[in-house]
Design goal:
The structure is a homodimer.
Chain A (H helix, E strand, L loop, with lengths): L1 E7 L12 E7 L7 E11 L2 H5 L20 E8 L9 E4 L6 E5 L4 E2 L16 H13 L7 E4 L5 H12 L3 E6 L2 H10 L4 E4 L5 H11 L5 E6 L3 H10 E9 L3 H4 L12 H5 L3 E4 L9 H13 L7 E4 L6 H9 L6 E5 L2
Parallel strand pairs in A: 8-9, 8-11, 9-10, 11-12, 12-13, 14-15
Antiparallel strand pairs in A: 1-2, 3-4, 3-6, 3-15, 4-5, 5-7
Helix pairs in contact in A: 2-3, 5-6
Chain lengths: 337, 337
């Protein structure tokens, strides 16, 4: 069988371009013993992938050159061995960026799609949702009634985190990169206030948004961007506040190091705690998370914010660039069929 | 009775100078009901006092102008009411910067000087020692065998923290501001390695010091300075490392904001936790601390590093300036008698 896949041709400098990659048609081998052949139906494009395109040491290995890139995908089993999942099952795995994937049996995860869109396992029911859940519940220990500020709040993780916090009786303020995204946060997702971080200094806009939300300080900052917004958040943290570092979009494309907050002395004066985490360390929370998230989805307490891209595998690279440039809202999912 | 005291005359800009203060002779009033008259025998000069001379909002109030400054002192009771401590008792209180102090009874703390120099209650047996103890034990949760890096290690808190960690079987690396101080750390206090932060880029010197200590990464950074050394420490933290923010000497005299670490992305990749604290929130640890520290002092596991200044109250301001400029080692204590 033949299938197409995206290869990394060279490491991007700054913003990636079309000449950094190539869409290649390959002959997919028969699955060997213990392997599973999957027809991918959807894949996600995510900010962390930009990091893996660089050689910089990161928590994940750099993508090799002239080989297919990887990432989360869902699909249906086309062929499988005697111990593998039945043909026709829905599975989630990490060999995205391709139409057909031959995956080791241990690396596929059969999912229960009863009542949910299978692509939800790329987003709210996948690592995206688990990331928001772990960040709020375990790292920040968010309590009802507290004030949460979340940056990149119209992104996949941010939009989920904000909605989970609202469901727990918190005041939620978010930032996003366009007036349209800001409107989605307050009008569709129930945020108490939101601001466009491109419209002026984060420091002033954050202060005004907190005021609109009827609060004067932040108990928990869920940071997806770093840079200027992190400094602005430190400035408005309440005593005993927690800063959960989840991502740093502001630094991913940067060719110069992005300065850290100049006001870290406030970390001492206000007894603040700042902690980075990677969701992979917290798999033990997955059963609780899946139970809670399925309930929140049924009750429409959490409504997935997604950008669905059609056009098949060819559309995946442009969708990645668009997501990176801030053109998408929520989880960017590419339908491959 | 007449006594002399140091008044703040104006708020220093950058490094304080002699014209910012005045030594004033005053008539000390009779102690009123519930008050205690104390002849101070020793006072400490400390970096945080620089912060209180500025108007900048801090965790502690700014010193008022044209009034005596405050700070830790020990002394003996000269006069006291029926419910107060007996005449002749040794007490610790916060009305330093003066020869005679009239202190509310509730604000004096009778100390047991059996077997110890009363001035120890300004240092290793006082808030200095408690700060090191709380920072390592509660904030960092330092474990035996881990590697500790402590900056301003020839300072009062840093020298105590390093010695406590050595007593727990840790590898300890410190930084200080002169070759003489560096020598004290490795030759007198048992540090595994130390470096002079003024001799070159912190990043390179820290790497070399870790190598000399036979280790390649840091589990706990006890930060007393901020700035460049904080960035260098973040770079060498091990997975799951903790950064305890205790002070930020690098920023106290700065007239421009000091940039934060440019490598906070490592906080995520390596799951680091950074936490600021103020010792006043952790008074509950004081009984454990006093028991442990008296034992460590008896066993010479902790040896107080002090700069003793004689010359009475007149010597207090020059001693403060010298401490701030890095001319002292360990706790700076001014003998007032």
């Amino acid at each position: 069988m033949k299938g197409r896949e995206w290869h990394l041709r060279r490491r991007p400098s700054g913003t990636p371009t079309a000449s950094d990659v190539a869409l290649v048609e390959v002959t997919v081998p028969e699955p060997g013993p213990g392997e599973v052949l999957v027809r991918n139906t959807a894949m996600s494009v995510e900010p962390y992938m930009r990091g893996r395109m660089s050689e910089t040491r990161s928590y994940a290995d750099a993508y090799p050159l002239d080989a297919p890139m990887t990432g989360h995908a869902v699909g249906r089993v086309l062929a499988s061995g005697p111990d593998g999942p039945p043909v026709g099952s829905w599975v989630r795995h990490e060999l995205g960026w391709r139409e057909l994937a031959v995956v080791p049996g241990a690396a596929v995860d059969v999912v229960d799609v009863e009542g949910v869109d299978p692509a939800a396992f790329l987003g709210v029911l996948g690592l995206t949702g688990l990331t928001a859940y772990v960040g709020l519940r375990r790292i920040a220990a968010l309590r009802p009634g507290e004030t949460l500020f979340v940056s990149a709040a119209a992104g996949a993780v941010g939009s989920t985190a904000g909605q989970i916090a609202k469901a727990q009786g918190c005041i939620v303020v978010g930032s996003a990169g366009s007036p349209e995204k800001v409107a989605r946060l307050t009008e569709d997702l129930g945020f108490d206030a939101a601001f466009d971080h491109r419209a002026g200094p984060a420091r002033e806009q954050l202060a005004a948004a907190l005021e609109r939300a009827g609060t004067d300080g932040i108990d928990v900052y869920f940071d997806n961007v770093g840079g200027e917004q992190l400094e602005a958040a430190v400035r408005r943290m309440r005593e005993g506040g927690r800063l959960t570092l989840c991502g740093a979009i502001a630094t991913y494309n940067a060719t110069e190091p992005v300065p850290g907050p100049r006001n870290l002395l406030l970390m001492i004066w206000r007894r603040l705690r700042m902690e980075g985490f990677l969701v992979g360390d917290h798999e033990d929370l997955r059963p609780d998370f899946e139970r809670d998230m399925r309930a929140w989805l049924r009750a429409s307490v959490v409504r997935p914010l997604e950008t669905r891209v059609s056009g098949g595998i060819e559309a995946a690279w442009p969708a990645f660039l668009d997501m990176l440039a801030g053109g998408s809202v929520g989880k960017s999912i590419v339908d491959l069929t």
